[in-house]
Design goal:
Layout (H helix, E strand, L loop, with lengths): L15 H23 L6 H27 L6 H4 L6
């Protein structure tokens, strides 16, 4: 009788997705360090607050739409109706 090879899944310490995310995190850290050394205004409290305020509206809509998509009521038309108060 012919022997069958080991069909057990191999144990991986880091998944391919996790390694891509770690590479992305490393790239963000490197870019942040470069910008922080190039400009004295990059890592200030005022700049970080303004950056968070810029993404707050999109974050709120994204969180709501994530719940809608998870529950199965997929409706992607909300993104088109989102308007910035500055426009």
């Amino acid at each position: 009788m012919a022997s069958v090879g080991d069909t057990r899944p191999q144990l991986r310490l880091v998944s391919p997705t996790a390694s891509r995310e770690l590479a992305l995190l490393a790239a963000i850290v490197v870019v942040s360090i470069v910008f922080a050394t190039a400009s004295p205004y990059f890592l200030t409290v005022n700049n970080l607050v303004q950056t968070m305020r810029a993404g707050l509206e999109l974050s709120i809509v994204s969180a709501g739409m994530t719940l809608v998509i998870i529950m199965g009521g997929i409706d992607v038309s909300v993104g088109a109706s989102l308007r910035s108060p500055r426009s």
